[in-house]
Write a structure and sequence with these properties.
The complex is a heterodimer of chains A (323) and B (146). With 323 residues, chain A is of the alpha/beta class. Chain A has helices at residues 4-7, 16-19, 28-35, 37-47, 52-73, 95-108, 122-125, 133-144, 167-180, 193-202, 204-209, 221-234, 241-255, 262-283, 291-295, 299-303, 306-309, 318-322; strands spanning 85-89, 117-120, 148-151, 186-191, 212-216, 238-239, 296-297. Chain A is built from 18 helices and seven strands. In chain A, the strands form two sheets. In chain A, strands 2-3-4-1-5 form a five-stranded parallel β-sheet, sandwiched between helices. Chain A is globular, with a radius of gyration of 25 Å. Helices cover 18% and strands 27% of the residues of chain B. In chain B, the strands form two sheets. A four-stranded antiparallel β-sheet of chain B has the order 2-1-3-4. The two termini of chain B are 30 Å apart. The chains are: A alpha/beta (323), B alpha+beta (146). Chain A binds chain B through residues 1-2, 4, 7-8, 113-114, 116, 138, 141-147, 181, 184-185, and chain B through 14, 17, 21, 23-24, 26-27, 61, 63-70, 72-73.
Chain lengths: 323, 146
């Protein structure tokens, strides 16, 4: 058995503002150290290139949560901050990755109980027929309780052109839980900027319940090259110096083409370069290979891309290119 | 003679204690989840000691990892069956164990009329006894008020 008093929050002392002397020292640094948030922020800095405004915002949120915790320690009121967020940005700008990091930060600060992200899309929330949506949405919410619910492409939830769409029902339940279970659940919506703006216009209730709107900027060519190098390092590959130059050219060319998806395009390009590298190694039978050959991406692996020869992205079907 | 003071059904854990608060239930749920036990919610309006199998409210929650979600479901069940007995069971699915490990009542009717002893005279001077719940004289669903 647990004592009931131990489980319930102590009532905030209304007079704490006046009773506790103003000069009471608070150790912000110690609290910061103890929470180990710096580790996560450092990791964020290391593993996420660019995204300056995002990092600044995360730092601010972390600071607010920490200060709130110190205030609570002194008996000052700290209204449970609303932590629901909206990430907007173009494809491949790192929204999902940041959501995962966010869960870690909030967990370290003790605002969620599990550093776990339940990632869902419209299909997981909205049902097919009448009476199907509510249980489905509730099921997902129950699963996400105590952690972070990440709704990707959230604007699909609401389809204004179909007034009998069940998405509205799902949004209603979401709003209710976002309001009532603020201590148990953090909801992060993600999607493209313009569509999310439209989504919020038609759902003002949703917009007002989300405290943090964070916009993810596109990456520059330099940043994409750093990201690509980081990705290769994770997979234990490396560029030869010429290949690095080739990839820099590739990025500049690819950025001007349609369907460019920032870091995702870089990842796909690398995957294809690895394919070509493997093929190249196979193509010279009898040659003595070393470890260096296995880990190095050479310029020809990249220059073989149709971005250079035909001026079209590789992802497009060859038929479409010839037509 | 009243042996059960307060005339409360005392089944499962904590049943001689005052009703658990939501915070206490959450703590118990946390304990069960930490042991990887799946939690199920059951209800009945016939809490006879021999009535082992109550109705399940939804499926056993094998996939939930946080007490808040389960508490949501408990409150949902309370809203649906405000005058029923509702109990929470924890189930250990480890192979070879596969049995309930915890069971406690989280909702009970306001008035519990209790049980009477029915004596049946049989051959000779023998008497057979049976325990009869006063509430079950009424039809299902109306036993503890609507």
């Amino acid at each position: 058995m647990t004592e009931p008093a131990a489980e319930q929050d102590p009532k905030p002392d209304v007079n704490a503002l006046h009773n506790v002397p103003d000069a009471t020292p608070v150790d912000l640094e110690a609290a910061f150290r103890d929470s180990h948030v710096q580790e996560v922020l450092d990791k964020l800095d290391r593993e996420l290139i660019g995204l300056k405004p995002v990092k600044t915002r995360i730092r601010e949120i972390a600071a607010l949560l920490l200060v709130d915790r110190l205030r609570k320690g002194l008996g000052l009121t700290s209204g449970a901050p609303s932590l629901h967020m909206c990430f907007t940005g173009n494809p491949g700008t790192g929204k999902t990755t940041v959501a995962l990091r966010m869960a870690e930060i909030l967990h370290r600060l003790g605002y969620i109980r599990r550093a776990e992200v339940v990632s869902v899309t419209r299909d997981d929330l909205v049902g097919q027929y009448i009476g199907h949506t509510a249980p489905k949405t509730k099921e997902v919410l129950k699963k996400a309780m105590g952690g972070v619910l990440f709704i990707d492409e959230a604007y699909y939830l609401y389809k204004p052109e179909n007034e009998r769409d069940y998405g509205a029902e799902s949004i209603e339940i979401l709003l209710q839980v976002m309001e009532n279970n603020r201590d148990d659940l953090v909801v992060i919506l993600a999607g493209y900027k313009d569509r999310m703006d439209k989504f919020f216009q038609s759902n003002p209730g949703m917009s007002s319940r989300i405290a943090h709107h964070i916009d993810f900027p596109d990456y520059g060519p330099g940043e994409l090259l750093s990201i690509a190098k980081l990705m290769l390092e994770e997979q234990q590959y490396r560029f030869s110096p010429e290949a690095e130059q080739a990839f820099a050219d590739y990025i500049v060319k690819r950025m001007k083409m349609p369907h460019f998806a920032n870091a995702r395009s870089a990842r796909n390009a690398l995957d294809r370069a690895r394919l070509r590298q493997a093929n190249r190694l196979f193509a010279k039978p009898g040659a003595k290979l070393t470890k260096k050959d296995l880990v190095t991406i050479e310029p020809e692996d990249i220059l073989a891309s149709r971005v250079f020869s035909d001026g079209v992205p590789d992802t497009e079907a060859p038929k479409a290119a010839t037509l | 003679m009243m042996t059960n003071i307060g005339n409360r059904v005392t089944q499962g854990q904590f049943s001689f204690l005052p009703d658990l608060t939501d915070a206490q239930i959450t703590a118990q749920l946390k304990y069960a989840l930490n042991n990887n036990w799946a939690i199920g919610i059951e209800y009945t309006d016939d809490a006879h000691p021999r009535n082992t199998y109550w109705e399940m409210f939804g499926n056993p929650m094998f996939d939930l990892k946080d007490p808040a979600g389960i508490l949501m479901e408990i409150n949902n069940c309370r809203k649906t069956f405000p005058h029923h007995y509702i109990r929470v069971t924890a189930f250990d699915s480890t192979r070879g164990v596969e049995s309930p490990t915890m069971s406690y009542i989280v909702n009970r009717p306001k008035v519990e009329p209790g049980f009477g002893l029915v004596r049946q005279e049989v051959e000779g001077r023998s008497i057979r006894y049976t325990v009869h719940s006063y509430a079950t004289d009424k039809p299902e669903g109306e036993r503890y008020g609507k």
